[in-house]
Amino acid sequence: MLASKPEDTLSKGLVIIESPGKAKAIQKYLGKGFVVEASFGHVKDLPKSTLGVDIDNNFETEYVVIPGKEKVLAKLKKLALSADSIYLAPDPDREGEAIAWHLAEELGDGKTKKKKKKKEGGEPDRIRRVTFNEITKRAVQEAFEHPHDIDRNLVDAQQARRVLDRLVGYQVSPLLWDKVRRGLSAGRVQTVALRLIVEREREIKAFQKQEYWTIDAHLAGPKPPAFDARFVGKGEEKVEVTHGDDAEKIRVALEKADWLVRTVERKERRRNATPPFTTSKLQQDSSRKLRFSVKRTMMIAQRLYEGVELGEEGSVGLITYMRTDSTRVSNEALAEVREYIKSQYGNEYLPESPNTYKEKKAAQAAHEAIRPTSAMRHPDQIKQYLKEDEYKVYKLIWQRFVASQITPAVFDQTTVDIDAKSGAETFWFRVTGSVPKFDGFLRVYEESKEGKDEEDEELKHKLPPLEAGQKLTLRELKPEQHFTEPPPRYNEASLVKELEERGIGRPSTYSAILSTIQERQYVQKLGGKFSPTEIGLVVTDLLVENFRDIFDVQYTARLEEELDEIEEGKETWTNALADFYKRFAKDLRYAEKHMENIKRMEKPTDEKCERCGSPLVIKWGKHGSFYACSSYDKENPESCTFTKENPINLPDLDSADIQETTQEEYCENCGRVMVLKRGRFGQFMACTGYPDCKTTRRLDQGKKVPDIPLDELCPKCGRNMMIRHGRFGEFTACSGYPECKYVKQNFIGVKCPLCEDGEIVEKKARKGNTFYGCGNYPKCKFTSAGKPLAEKCPSCGNEYLVEKTLKAGPVVACPNKECDYERAAEPVPVA
What we know:
The chain is of the alpha+beta class. Helix content is 29%, strand content 25%. Strand 33 (770-774) and strand 34 form a beta hairpin. Helix 3 (94-107) packs across helix 5 (152-179) and helix 5 (152-179) runs antiparallel to helix 16. 34% of the residues are buried.
């Protein structure tokens, strides 16, 4: 055993890890014979300025040292010169293997692409790979007792993903810059995720709600309690009630019905424990239970994996590696958790043999599920050493793992069918109730779920003792109208679930996908749910229309399977890339020829220009689409330059948006409730955990600001106007959007003194302050902080005066800096 070797017999070894956070714990477990240093992630990558892939030469890649990593590499090379052995210990996944490969290239003799022969005497190569799934003494020392070669299949799989993403990003993004606007990006997987959000949004918009009715009968038996049974049908045939008239007919018939228990079915139902966490399940449960974003969850899990200071015990890795799709658990961990369950909960909670769970087809067998490194380390025992968010995530992981090895929960379920006989008709009602008999794994943990849970609904029904043939008494009939609801928008948890189920992306990519589509402003969050922005809709439509193969959901999932096959050695990475590039090159040629140029877009509308009466068209600018007068001619300075904001840039005011807007918002960093506050730059959302948590968010970063109805009527359709909130602050528009798209321009009735053609408009700056500008912007760039008045200066003859507010009160002054004319403003009459 490595631990039993005297320190003076240990050969001097250089250990290179990814993150410095692990160094202290690993150094402690290895002893003085080793030096532990960090590479701080990747040291080499494809160049930023060029493609870095020779498509015509079997996809030969050009990797360069990442700018800023020169000093890191120089230090590692210097240490490597005096080390007898070099152990490469980045994370145990494809990306970690690629990092080890690049380190070996830089620190070795340049022959690492081929398997080197062993040295004379059978001694192993100087550069070796070590991997461990948890940072514990046992795992680390065992890894160093069994070093191995770099796994080229893993390297090739990661290299294939990197090249795929580079080919798409570097050849599709410039098309978007040319056709839409600079700074946009296209990603092989992120675009498919965005496509799911866009398609769901369109499902919601196209949804036609359907009416249906439920009829509940509040009944009493010989013994309490009274209970509710629901109408199922007539006789033994199920019937759906879709109209109020039908519901009323049934209600009338039931008023004089005789109620009788038809059948009573009792059975024992068992509910099995859920498997320990995979990456996606951790992200979903953390989102639902703790209100943490996926990115936040992974950051916390990374800290727990790398190690936390536990007083005298020092730095300890608290969980296993957190990027995994496996539910496998080591025999040692199973033995420990079974011992814990037996001692803490008793034999009735311990299954005869360990619970095992079915693995996904593509799960990486070498990995384990996410679990605590020791089940004996109860969350409350180490709470004092953890930050609040670390404690919450660790507790979630610990509870899920312990519960996964406990016996099933048992319920007594009773289903009662009831006949209501009214004349010649028999109406069928049913009620199902469940009573907990044995809590089993639920004593420790219960999985969160999206939407309503049927089992929870059953538990609400407390049934009296009932037998077939018993008479019941009707106390009340409760017909209720309902409407079918559209599918819900994705939140972070449900989007990760959808990506996993469709085979898009892998554990290490979910967080990056969600971050990218938000950072690129392709989506925004409304009430914690994703809604596509206008730019997101435009980009999705262009890419899906012109790259029908590459951004297809099924094809993207198939590519993930091919990467898995490369990792397993079943396919070469260059052949997989060649097949991909045949499709991609064809789509790329088509897109270059046929992709619509949005920058030149001019879509006709039924709107009329408020200034000259010409038809308005929709054009595209750097901030999205807007209305512009069709009579504008850049060659003619006299042409109309009227423009106004397009309300499509705002979320629609449908019931789903309003419902989501009124929901509480939670801090993505700590899970506490966010509240609305006001600062010097206007309103903002702030975490109630201040000063422990200082998270804030501007109101234009996701959640919609409530609109304010006005008494003013729309001059176009007669409906009420509303104050809405856009990218640049408040504006007034018709409440009838999208049928009526009228947006009010706040003209003040003064001609522009600069161009003498446009009219002055009251505007809002980004920071909320009011200013005045010419309606002919950008042709005329006149602006004024004070409100212009159509009055010549009596002192210098300047064409206009302005209203200003000073400490002494409002004044009318001349804007000419060389003129000192000023007078007190006339007081505003009080109504």
